[in-house]
Design goal:
- The chain has 179 residues and is an alpha+beta fold.
- It is built from four helices and nine strands; from the N terminus they run ββααββββββαβα.
- It is 25% helix and 34% strand.
- Strands 2-1-5-4-3 form a five-stranded antiparallel beta sheet. A two-stranded parallel ribbon has the order 6-9. Strands 7-8 form a two-stranded antiparallel sheet.
- It starts with a strand and ends with a helix.
- Bound molecules: zinc ion.
- Zinc ion binds at residues 131, 133-134, 136, 169, 171-172.
């Protein structure tokens, strides 16, 4: 089992550096084409539109000056549950972003479990409101930036990402009305 991996993307989100852990992790998770991933877009390897959207926002925030974000991340397979902490760092002036993940918890399932059924009915907590203008998220009545929302809601630790509902926050609404 891989207990640490790291990878880096350039200003165009292309994978420019991956370590041995990345290759092993990709293999364990059955990622297609990971063996020659260098130069390809990171987003080719991220499953799910909602996950992609939130991760893209995080990368943008890190590049725009947040610099360093740490979040719990959960990877499930039919046989096991793994929790990792992922750190996303902006480095230098070339807009390189470095991702490094370390294993924090691992549990083998006694009985293999089918992965989550994407078509299962959704509950209230499966939806997350997002402002289409400023890209902030509504968490417990407060509009917060993506890294704060990901931290408070443990977005990447859930079995699946909530569906994003696009709306407008009161601040943006006022600015638009005033314009
Ligand atoms: Zn807004």
């Amino acid at each position: 089992m891989v207990d640490a991996l790291s990878y880096a993307i350039d200003g165009e989100d292309r994978l420019v550096r991956v370590d041995e852990g990345f290759y092993r992790f990709a293999e364990e998770n059955g990622w297609d084409g990971a063996a020659d991933c260098l130069g390809r877009s990171l987003w080719d390897f991220v499953a799910g539109e909602q996950v992609k959207k939130v991760q893209r926002l995080l990368v943008r925030r890190v590049r725009d000056g947040v610099r360093d974000v740490r979040l719990p991340f959960r990877c499930e397979s039919p046989e096991s549950i793994r929790e990792m902490e992922i750190r996303i760092d902006a480095t230098g002036s070339r807009r390189l972003v470095l991702f490094s993940a370390t294993l924090t918890y691992e549990e083998d399932r006694e009985q293999p479990q089918p992965l989550y059924d994407a078509d299962a009915p959704r509950s209230e907590s499966d939806f997350l409101a997002m402002c289409a203008w400023c890209d902030r998220f509504l968490v417990s009545g407060e509009w917060v930036e993506v890294e704060e929302a990901a931290r408070r809601l443990e977005l990447f630790r859930r079995p699946r990402m909530p569906v994003l509902n696009h709306g407008i926050c009161p601040q943006c609404s006022r600015q638009l009305l005033a314009a």
